Amino acid sequence: MARKKYKFIDLFAGVGGIRIAFEKNSCKCVFSSEWDIYSQKTYFENFGEMPDGDITKVVENDIPNHNILTGGFPCQPFSTIGKRQGFDHPTQGTLFFDIVRILEAKKPEAFLLENVAGLVNHDGGKTFKQIIKTLENELHYKVESKVLDSADYGVAQHRKRIYIVGFSEKVSSSKEFKFEWPEKNKKKVGVGQFVEQHDSGYTISNHLQKSYIYKLPDGRPQVINEESDIQVKTLVSTYHKIQRLTGTFVSDGNTGLRLLSENECKAIMGFPLDFKFPVSRTQMYRQMGNSVAIPVVQKIAKQITTTLSTAGI
Are residues 239 and 138 in the same domain? Predict the structure, then answer.
């Protein structure tokens, strides 16, 4: 018997990393939202759909019915924002509140939220506690959360993120209900196999290398080549600014050192090689740095859909 094709919505969609992960689990996207015009352009180029814009202006009841809500929402300090602005609810005025109002209106059977690992300790832990309290006590979802490093799931990059998974009472009350986080891969994937050769195009000048990159003999930055059997540092949205402490660079090119290529970025984020970026290289780096490690989300998506199927949804 064919497995049910669950419907999901893609909020704070970026360029569609979460969408790819869920579509690989036979799910169907019925709505997407992304405010950044450059990300919208990339999203449209690859999926043939233009995401809705500002989520705060989207009427929740206009969103199609769906089984799963997904979103890599921005982190905002809202533990006191409600009191300052006179609202009744402590998340009012934040983008997380838009997730809350959609969950409340559409009542999907499950959700997956993703954020930076630092969210757990943001504002002394108050932000995260308020998020969980809202999801559990007000929306009545059974919530699981865990920080996962993409390097443990077949990705050649260390990328720690907090994943928050929730199931409605309809699902969690089932005698067959069971959700488990995906198991770690037994073997880690080294980045060397993905390294390309580029004589020019991503070059870091000799002057910048001498005056900044190698200004101190401290072993920084991280430099890789085709023989590197390691996982690179977290790719950040400001990668194009060439930060010696946090960046990973390649021993290659006509000056001996260059930035990661587009294909190398795709590889360490788990994007398919045929994924298109109809934007500048700077925007490509921003979009990749803001995206998700697809293989990790794909494995979580499988666990979510398995849980729903087992519960009879």
Answer: no
User: For 110, what's the count of Cα atoms within 13 Å in the CB-facing half-sphere?
Assistant: 28
**Dist CA 135 CA 84 (whole Å):** 22
Cis ω for the linkage preceding 272 (within 30 of 0): no
29 is catalytic: no
**Residue 61 and residue 144 in one domain:** yes
pLDDT tens digits along 45-86 = 999 999 999 898 999 999 999 999 999 987 655 433 334 333
The residue assigned the tokens 């180029």 is 45
Structurally, the chain folds into a number of domains equal to 2
Domain interval for residue 128: 7-186+292-310
CB atoms within 10 A of CB 255: 14
- Catalytic option among 27, 29, 75, 265: 75
Residue 197 pLDDT greater than 70, yes or no: yes
pLDDT per residue over 244-253, tens digit each? 888 999 999 9
Question: Has residue 218 got a pLDDT over 90?
Answer: no
**List of E strands, the chain:** 7-11, 28-32, 68-71, 110-116, 142-149, 160-167, 222-224, 248-250
Residue reference for tokens 């788990």:
270
